Amino acid sequence: PVVARCELGRARFRRIRRSRHAMATVGMRGLNIFIQDVRNAANKEVEQERVDKELANIRKKFKKVKDMTPYDRKKYVWKLLYIYMLGYEVEFGHMHVVGLISAPKYSEKQVGYTVASVLLNETHEFLRLVINSVREDIISRSEIFQCLGLSFVANVGGREFADALAADVQRVLLNGGARPIVRKKAALALLRLFRRNKEILVPETFSRQLADLLDERDLGILSGVMSLLTGIVAHDSTGYEVCIPKVCAVMTRLARNKDIPADYQYYLLPSPWLQVKCLRALQYFPTPEDPEYLQAEVEVISGILQGTDTVRNVNKNNALHSVLFEAVSLAAQLDLGEDRGLIERSISVLGTFITKSEPNIAYLGLNHLTNLVAPDTLEAIKSYIPEVIPRLHDVDISIRKRALDLLFAACDGTNARDIVGHLLRYLTTADFAIREELALKTAILAERNAGTIPNGKQWFLETCLTLIDKAGDFVSDKMWHRVAQVVTNAPELHARAARATLDRLRMGSPHFMFARVAAYCLGEFGHALGGEAPPAETASLLLEEFKSADVDTRRVILSALAKIAMRADEETRKKLGEVFRAHAVSEQVEIQQRAVEYFVMTNVAGNAQRLQSVMQPMPNFPERASALEGEVVTAGGGAADAAAVRKARPGAVRVPPPRSA
Question: Distance between CA 365 and CA 587 in Å, rounded?
Fold first, then answer.
């Protein structure tokens, strides 16, 4: 008997499976043979030949429309779809697809809608021909036809569809007698149409209707309606404040796990995807004034923060943390005045994730902590810096990058020396893929905090020179240009910069990027060293670097040598003049031009005295924002400075209190 029941079960399953596909491709022998031939093609040329042959055959068949049966039309349309999905152009047959949509039978409509959804986009001219057919299906009494039409609109509906069908789709959504699956599809179709034309939904009339839809008990309808609400308020939340308490009531219902069908529970979690949608929708609204609603929202967030923990099951972990991170984002948007308890609990929960061995959890913890950095949360987040620093050495480069982002965002005058010191030490062992970003952010942190710590400018100079020397291949000209600007505008750094660069040149083999900044400093401020570094020695060190330098570095060194020649003795000036003369015939035009001009200025009789003013030290640069700041915004997509992630909280609105679930 047990065996018999198993066999009956298998037979029933096979019948159901056959019935589901009977109206699609099952039984189409010609289609199956064509697919098999394409799969068995030995190479691309054989496949191309088989596809061209089939296209010619289909074109020939389509010319004899009267002789074609519905079966033939479906078969050839399926073949066109398969050919299109292989990457070949399909330039005919669209009218036959449109004809299938207008057919009276479900089997033909299904094929027409499926193929049209793939072959046609929202701007295709043939879509205009099916608007009336789609409308007839949407307003028909056949739920199957309604689902086909609504699914089609949700996939390819454009501006013309929005103008013609929005009212009909809205009526289906508001029809309480329709089945939940139809209303859910109507909500998603209306969202598509709203994104194409924002004028189809007027807040004055639709906001109350949308709020009533949030009272639905069916979670499928709620899921579709919540997607619609999120899409609307993401554009503009004005007028939809009445929906806030309803969303909160849905969250309360889900949090209590009451009246939740088993089909909507994921590892015993009540519809986590709907919870995520609710929390995300609430983030687009300003903080309400109503204390009852605000308290209810805080309680929901607090319950999520307290009830979320790491479990062994990966899938359940993902669901739990997806809800948690949305709750944290919502907590960050709420303006609770002086009450920082909620946001501090959020930071505390995220802080525990940093040390987790599971890389996904650690990544998300670092990422969300970075997004929470703001003036009012900085102190709480800074307490986790000791746990973040070891993550710079994680085996996963994505975690290393997120750790760098968090250190960059949480750095201020109180911890700048420690963080920058760690970054400089990490620079020598960092992966090549992260060194450019690491060097850039280290330089920015040094400059940002130079004015808030003792001897900040000296520390900035030492940090940047070390950075350029260690990571010369990963820094741009903008970095040493910025160092030159800062040092030029700070007279107390002139001698220190010249001495530091001279000492490094004496050690030999500096990076060419360091040679540029050294040439600038010695050319401009070398005279500040007095007897410590005679012009002859400085010129000799720069000439040594000149021999193996690239063109850009040689240009900087030539200018530095010209300035040194102006204050050097006659012997050194003549020696440098020979260098200028030798490069007066250089292949590089700019090197040649500079060499000629510098030779005339320094070695033609009387010019050295008359043109002394030409080689005066550079004047102070005008105060300007660092070009490096723009570089980090471009490289990090605007997320590197996490203080800018927090939205400016708009004014509060007054909404009615939420209903109890």
Answer: 56
Task: Pinpoint the alpha helices (H) of 428-583.
Answer: 432-448, 456-470, 477-488, 494-507, 512-525, 535-548, 551-566, 570-582
Q: According to the model, what pLDDT value does residue 610 have?
A: 63
In one-letter notation, the amino acid at residue 294 is L
Location of structure tokens 């929901």: 300
pLDDT at 28: 80
What tokens does 309 get? 């923990």
Type of residue found at 459: W
- Provide φ and ψ at 245, rounded to 5°: -65, -30
Segments of the chain with pLDDT less than 50:
1-23, 634-661
Rg (CA), the chain: 35
Q: Which helix (H) or strand (E) holds 265?
A: strand 265-266
Find tokens 């010609």 and name the residue.
30
3-state class (DSSP) for residue 585 = helix
Residues 6+ apart with CB under 8 A from 284: 230, 233, 234, 237
Q: What is the largest CA-CA distance in the chain?
A: 119
Angle, helix 416-427 to helix 456-470, in steps of 10 degrees: 10
pTM metric for this prediction: 0.75
Burial class (CB in 10 A: 0-12, 13-18, 19+), 134: buried
What kind and span of H or E run contains 342?
Answer: helix 341-353
pLDDT of residue 26: 54
Residue type for position 376: D
Q: What's the CA gap between 348 and 355, in Å, rounded?
A: 12
Report the candidate in 495, 492, 491 with the shortest Cα–Cα distance to residue 522.
Answer: 495
**CA distances, 396 to each of 391, 399, 407 (Å):** 9, 5, 17
Tokens in use for 351? 């802080």
Tokens of 243: 């929906």
Tens of pLDDT, residue by residue over 627-657, are 888 877 534 333 333 233 333 333 333 344 4
Neighbours of 73 (CB within 10 A): 22
List C-alpha distances in Å: 435 to 315, 399, 407, 429, 459. Answer: 34, 14, 15, 9, 21
Rounded CA gap, 560 and 502, in Å? 13
- For 252, the token pair is 């309360």
What are the residue ranges of helices labelled H in 86-200? 94-101, 106-119, 131-138, 143-156, 159-174, 180-196
| Six token digits for residue 59 | 């074109």
Q: Is 276 helix (H, G, I), strand (E, B) or coil?
A: helix
Q: Which residues contact 489 (CB under 8 A, 6 or more apart)?
A: 620, 621, 623
Query: CB-based contacts of 255: which residues, under 8 Å, 6+ apart?
Result: 270, 300, 303, 304
- Rounded to 10 degrees, the C-alpha dihedral 579/582/588/594 comes to 50
Q: Alpha-carbon distance 197 to 210, whole Å?
A: 18
Alpha carbons 387 and 384: distance in angstroms, whole number: 5
Tell me how far apart the terminal alpha carbons of the chain are, to the nearest angstrom. 48
- Sign, CA dihedral 314-317-323-326, equals negative
Residue pair 122/88 in contact (Cβ under 8 Å)? The answer is no
Asked if residue 370 lies in contact with residue 326, where contact means CB atoms within 8 angstroms, the answer is no
Cα separation, 281 vs 293, in Å, equals 15
Nearest residue to 653 (alpha-carbon basis) of 309, 293, 408, 342: 293
